[in-house]
Amino acid sequence: MLYGYLIENFKPYEPIFTADIDIDMVGNSLRPKLKELCDSGKLCRYEAGVYYLPGKLKLKGLTPISASAVARSRYVNRRGKVRGYYSGYTFANQIGLSLQVPYVQEIVTNEASAKVREINIKGQKFIIRKPKAEVTEENVYTLQFLDFLSDIDKYLDGSSENILDKLEKLIKDEKITKELIDTYISLYPTKVYKNLYETGVVYAITQG
User: Fold this and answer.
1) 11 or 23: which leads in pLDDT
2) CB neighbour list of residue 88: distance below 8 Å, 6 or more residues apart
3) Of 99, 116, 149, 172, which has the most beta carbons under 10 Å away?
4) Cβ atoms of residues 37 and 18 within 8 Å
5) In what side-by-side order are the strands of the sheet with 44-47?
6) pLDDT, tens only, 145-184
7) Full DSSP string of the chain
8) How far apart are CA 167 and CA 147, in angstroms?
């Protein structure tokens, strides 16, 4: 029953968190059932509380899922539901405004239990922060944009060009509107207002 549920609801190499296994089990029988599946080769254990279904990919001595994939599934987008977003140097690199590839990924998420903390997944470090407001599908890109803008000078390393063009593209692609900005900007330091005008990006924000 458990195996049928897993193959119906999860893809091979997709991180499976025990908290997301929504199936009726008698007493505390979930853990031994998961172990049985692992012992039979039908399921693989990544770390405590995290599993994945094996697929056809064969990698000798290597795990086919990464710490980054587990972090993304746990903190950014979990089972199709937005939970958070990448921030700091991680986000700056993603949008091409910094060539620096950060060793420690930064994530803002509803799942954070403290204002900021460092976690370790299989030897890889992540910085996890609480958001200024609950992250939803509607506001995720606005909060991410305002977070970035509040410390934009820190993330620009002089290696990027066309800064305004890239920020304008971000606003257009993610449909960041004046109404959304007005809703959340008061949660951020006043320098966000200053950076909006100094970058010239304020003129790219349109009425929704």
Assistant:
1) 11
2) 102, 106, 127, 148, 151, 155
3) 149
4) no
5) 16-17, 50-52, 44-47
6) 999 999 888 887 665 557 888 899 999 999 999 999 999 9
7) -HHHHHHHH--BT--EEGGG-----STT-HHHHHHHHHHHTSSEEEETTEEEB--S---TT--SS-HHHHHIIIIIEETTEE-EEE-HHHHHHHTTS-----SSEEEEETT-SSSEEEEEETTEEEEEE--SS---TTTHHHHHHHHHHHTHHHH--S----HHHHHHHHHHHTT-BHHHHHHHGGGS-THHHHHHHHSSGGGG-B--
8) 13
| The dihedral formed by the CA atoms of 33, 39, 41 and 45, expressed in degrees to the nearest 10 | 70
In this predicted structure, what is the pLDDT of residue 72?
97
